Amino acid sequence: MRHTAMVVLVGMIGTLGCTRASAPATGEWDAAATASLKAEPEAMLNEIDAGHFEAVEAKMDSDAIAFDFDSSNAPVRMQGVADIKKVFDGYANMMKTQQLKMKSTLVSSDCRATTSMGFCAIEFDQSATTPTGTMGPYKFRGTLVARRVADGWRWAHWHGSFREMPAMPAAAASAKH
Question: Which of the following CATH numbers is that of domain 2-165: 2.60.40.420, 3.90.550.10, 3.10.450.50, 2.60.40.10?
């Protein structure tokens, strides 16, 4: 099943890559491209932790699509840098006004790349600390699809979801009974 899913994903990536890649797509995994792509998810999480959202935005395709959560854990769909920037601006404001510090830990990263396109399936934990305490860790998984350009990788797609649902706050849990 996993092999079939990878073949399908590679086919989709190859199709996307043929229209936008700067180097010809071979459809074969490339060890050097995979190694360079493997560094990207952790670098992105480090930039988010530091509040450097502009660095993450600089690595996104102009028409990138992201499926993720907003600050209240509601699912959001973002398309293009402008949409993603609005969400990042909200996070940056929250980090500043609430003195929020993020800590992300990459738990696993499975990346594959050709010379022009690649993907990473990652799992990571994220905690948030304010002067009043720490929330989390929240356990996530993400899938990133990227294309290779002259100066590195550009994220074309991001999908984040919980790999473990967060526990309900005690007050909300007792109100249900």
Answer: 3.10.450.50
